[in-house]
Structures are given as structure tokens and as C-alpha cells.
Design a protein that fits this description.
117 residues; 4 helices; 0% strand
Length: 117
């Protein structure tokens, strides 16, 4: 998982695209067309994972980041929180301390997979 720095942005494929492409304001088919186009840009990006990691950690509530929509990131965060709660309960019931934060925050179980084109 990447850190919270944003130096990776300079290598993003999105730099050469219209920024509005990544922030659909329409709904329905028009939005889906725009989301699909944004995902195509993300699919060829060498910093797609760093972008997704950043959006998941911030949490970024708007736009296409790392090829994912805000709704997909919300579902992934909820799945991750639920998994952390399930894994924390047995250790707390046995009286053992919780795992250090660093070991509990690695990875995003339930995160949308990065799509390859």
C-alpha cells in the first residue's frame, strides 16, 4: 500500500485528460459513458494503485480515483470495517490487546479490483 504522499500524481495518465471526465455530474447513461471513459484512462495508468490507495485513505468522496466510483469505494470501506470488526472481536474476547494500527490498515479487503484492459 502506498503512503499518503501525492507525488505519484505527476505520473498519472489523467494529467493529459480533461479533469471533468473524472467528475461526472450527469446520471444514467450519460454518466456511465463518462465513467467508462475515465476508467479507460485509469486502466492504462502506471500509478492506478497509488491513486486508489489515496482515495481510500482520505476518503475521497467524489470522482473517479484509481478506476473506481465513490459508491464502489464506500462499499469497499464498509466491507473492510466489517472485516476488521469480525477479526478484532475474538482477540478482544480473549483479553489480548488489539493489533497495532499498522497491521490493521494494510490492504483493502473488499476493495474493487483494478480492471485491466
Amino acid at each position: 500500500m502506498s503512503d499518503l504522499s501525492t507525488g505519484w500524481r505527476a505520473a498519472g495518465s489523467c494529467l493529459s485528460a480533461d479533469p471533468d471526465l473524472f467528475f461526472p455530474i450527469a446520471t444514467g447513461p450519460a454518466a456511465m459513458k463518462q465513467i467508462t471513459m475515465a476508467r479507460q484512462v485509469c486502466a492504462g495508468c502506471r500509478v492506478q494503485q497509488e491513486c486508489l490507495d489515496w482515495a481510500m485513505r482520505m476518503p475521497e468522496a467524489h470522482g473517479i480515483w484509481g478506476g473506481t466510483t465513490p459508491e464502489e469505494r464506500i462499499r469497499a470501506r464498509r466491507a473492510r470495517t466489517a472485516q476488521l470488526r469480525r477479526t478484532a472481536r475474538p482477540s478482544l474476547a480473549q483479553g489480548s490487546p488489539r493489533a497495532p494500527l499498522a497491521s490493521r490498515t494494510h490492504g483493502w479487503p473488499g476493495a474493487p479490483s483494478i480492471r485491466a484492459s
